[in-house]
UniProtKB/TrEMBL annotation:
Its EC number is 3.2.1.4. This is Endoglucanase. Residues 451-470 are annotated as: Disordered. PANTHER family: ENDO-1,4-BETA-GLUCANASE (PTHR22298). Residues 1-25 form the signal peptide. InterPro entries: 6-hairpin_glycosidase_sf (IPR008928), 6hp_glycosidase-like_sf (IPR012341), Glyco_hydro_9 (IPR001701), Glyco_hydro_9_His_AS (IPR018221). One of its GO terms (molecular function) is cellulase activity. It comes from Hibiscus trionum. GO terms for biological process: cellulose catabolic process.
Length: 494
């Protein structure tokens, strides 16, 4: 029987160790540094001398030459080599919002975050340099996706897709205006001249987006669909941009635009609160605007709708319209699932700060949600992504001991130019794509689409929905990590 006693003692020790492991904090500061560094791996154009992701090299230097513009620079959106301006602009807005809310907690990484924003903002300025035109994408996406090729070798058509007055694109234009406006606020004190240039351009571009209305798929369809078609309409982007412009300029015309249009977002987007991403802005608008209308007479409809967002996301909520895996990761249908976990967690965390400022709590029918509960749920998602999950795997590349080795990313999976200077043709990259070897270049900080609903992750390069990183998965995570770097002690619970 002594044996049994011994076993139970061991079991007890084991359980205590598991519990300690469960509440152990991740190194959020390290994750933050890496989360920002990822953007250097996505850079297009001429790389600067302080480039830290050194296995990358200059690429796509002649982008825009087909339309007589300089469109070099910006970010490749994911594991391909196309520059899709719509999600790129959204990622920029989210990087800027991350710095505006949580930049004070970033320490020495704040400068790196500013650099990541400026890299995009410079490109968005080029994309809107000709009045009445906004670049929607650069690079023929079908030709690009047909190849497994390094950005440094690209020889597929670098077609520029540009919307204009007769062929408009209000979603891409308005999101660009939002990104420029939010970035302007970030550089307000660090670089006033740059900040002024950004806000002037943001106002011009918003005006164009509003006056010449249309969906960009009807203007430059083959350049953006089926990859980034806008299914929620463009009015949410217009309201979102107007809200950012009001926050920056305090001009009544922008507030009037928000007020006049918030009730007219088309369905189903108008009824969908558990959604926030490059296509759907409703929840983001309501949280953003709540930041200045909470506890005022104009808090309706923004605060009630932001509350609705919260009640549609919290795991214990009767009105929940997302699912959680057994291991605790938030799920929505479609690929690149972690984009939902990071973007919705960002909104929860930001809204929690606004609520705390007003001693507010939320009623979700059967229970009340406190700001600290919102933070707990966000932290649960962060900890899951960083490795507190059934696979024991960090879904951020280069973070902790176990992370994805075969990410769906051309530059990461092909040898670098330094290691293999010879050109690798379109189809000559296929063996590298099919290889079972780990990627030779570590795309540090990249967060992949993540595991399936059963918390399983095969680490398979050909499974793009799970193994591909994107800029809009990482961008909101930058702000969240800064907050938990400063406040790591919050108890995790899902
Ligand atoms: C570009 O590649 C060359 C080797 O071909 C290397 O010497 C150089 O450092 C690279 N540049 C950057 C910015 O990584
Ligand atoms: C407007 O954009 C469309 C679609 O990109 C293009 O075909 C057309 O030539 C452009 N018009 C002008 C005046 O630039
Ligand atoms: C909280 O309120 C103060 C005073 O109005 C304001 O300066 C601060 O920015 C607010 N913080 C947040 C997170 O809203
Ligand atoms: C905001 O309203 C809540 C009740 O809804 C109240 O408890 C809180 O004190 C108010 N905060 C401020 C800053 O007015």
């Amino acid at each position: 029987m002594g044996n049994g006693k011994c076993m139970s003692l061991l079991t007890l020790v084991g359980m205590v160790m598991v519990m300690l492991h469960k509440v152990a904090s991740q190194d959020y500061g390290d994750a933050l540094s890496k989360c920002i560094l990822f953007f250097e791996g996505q850079r297009s154009g001429k790389l600067p001398s302080n480039q830290r992701m050194i296995w990358r090299n200059d690429s796509a230097l002649s982008d825009g030459s087909d339309v007589g513009m300089d469109l070099s620079g910006g970010y490749y959106d994911a594991g391909d080599n196309v520059k899709f301006n719509f999600p790129m602009a959204f990622s920029t807005t989210m990087l800027a919002w991350s710095v505006l809310e949580f930049g004070q907690y970033m320490g020495s990484d704040q400068q790196n975050a500013l650099d990541s924003i400026r890299w995009a903002a410079d490109y968005l300025l080029k994309s809107t340099d000709v009045p009445g035109k906004v670049t929607a994408a650069v690079g023929n996406p079908k030709a690009d996706h047909n190849c497994w090729e390094r950005p440094e070798d690209m020889d597929t058509p670098r077609t520029s897709y540009v919307v204009n007055q007769t062929h408009p694109g209000s979603e891409v234009s308005a999101e660009t205006a939002a990104a420029l406006a939010a970035s302007s606020l970030v550089f307000n004190s660090a670089d006033p001249a740059y900040s002024k240039a950004l806000i002037d351009r943001a106002e011009e571009v918003f005006d164009f987006a509003d006056k010449f209305r249309g969906n960009y798929k009807d203007s430059v369809g083959e350049g953006v669909c089926p990859f980034y078609c806008d299914s929620s309409g463009y009015l949410d982007e217009l309201v979102w941009a107007a809200a950012w412009l009001f926050k920056v300029t305090n001009e009544q015309k922008y507030w009037g635009f928000v007020q006049d249009n918030i009730a007219h977002l088309p369905k189903p987007a108008a009824d969908s609160f558990a959604e926030f991403g490059w296509d759907a802005k409703n929840a983001g608008i309501n949280v953003l605007v709540s930041g200045w209308v909470m506890n005022t007479t104009t808090s309706d409809p923004y605060v009630p709708q932001a509350n609705k967002f919260v009640c549609s996301v919290l795991p214990e909520s009767p009105d929940k319209s997302v699912t959680y895996s057994a291991g605790g990761l938030l799920f929505k249908p479609g690929g690149s699932n972690t984009q939902h976990a990071t973007a919705l967690s960002f909104l929860l965390l930001v809204y929690a700060q606004y609520l705390k400022n007003h001693s507010g709590t939320i009623s979700c029918g059967t229970f009340d949600a406190t700001p600290s509960r919102l933070e707990q749920v966000a932290k649960g998602q962060v900890d899951y992504i960083l490795g507190n999950n059934p696979m024991g795997m960090s879904y951020m590349v280069g973070f902790s001991q176990k992370f994805p080795q075969r990410i769906h990313h051309r530059a990461s999976s092909l040898p670098s130019v330094g290691d293999h200077p010879e050109h690798i043709q379109c189809k000559d990259g296929t063996p590298y794509f099919q290889s079972n070897n780990p990627n030779p270049n570590v795309l540090t900080g990249a967060i992949v689409g993540g595991p399936d609903m059963n918390d399983q992750f095969p680490d398979d390069r050909s499974n793009a929905p799970e193994s591909e990183p994107t800029t809009y998965i990482n961008a909101p995570f930058v702000g969240i990590l800064a907050y938990f770097k400063a406040f790591p002690k919050l108890r995790t619970s899902i």
